[in-house]
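Hi W.,

Here's what went into the run:
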Amino acid sequence: GAGVSQTPSNKVTEKGKYVELRCDPISGHTALYWYRQSLGQGPEFLIYFQGTGAADDSGLPNDRFFAVRPEGSVSTLKIQRTERGDSAVYLCASSSDVNEQFFGPGTRLTVL
Amino acid sequence: SQQGEEDPQALSIQEGENATMNCSYKTSINNLQWYRQNSGRGLVHLILIRSNEREKHSGRLRVTLDTSKKSSSLLITASRAADTASYFCATPNYGGSQGNLIFGKGTKLSVKP
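Here's what came out:
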């Protein structure tokens, strides 16, 4: 595909459940980023991958959040024991140059 | 915490008018970027200005950067209804990594036809 894709586009879950959010970056982009955006706020950095490794995971709020990128392409953001406060739009971006990130449409997560 | 703060939070103008949005940041940077977001979903990169540049143009967009005041402005000239969106400034968080962008809260622009 031409752009970054994210699945699912919407996810509704119950408090305490486990969720996985998927990101397919632009082909050839070595860098991949996850952000979280709450209503009325700008995106908040979570984690950045360079290739298969997490170059910076300083934005992950706690150990319930984990992300992987095992083959250096697709990435999965995993959230354990979801809480209502995790409800947000989760944005993925990829880039070949740190100076311009290409964003996907996001996954809207709602925790009931 | 968010470094960039856009001003105003919301802006409503008529088609054809110019729109100016401002951004202030806290720490030293080597570049600043502006992004646009429609309907609360994916962001689109608009323009990047480096710390050694004072002004940059791209089509109807003009960005200025004043590193002494730690501020930037985005001007959209001859606005169109399709420019209605939220606009964010973003700066690299070098305390973390070059890939770690810090976004402001955004300016919500409404252009009325």
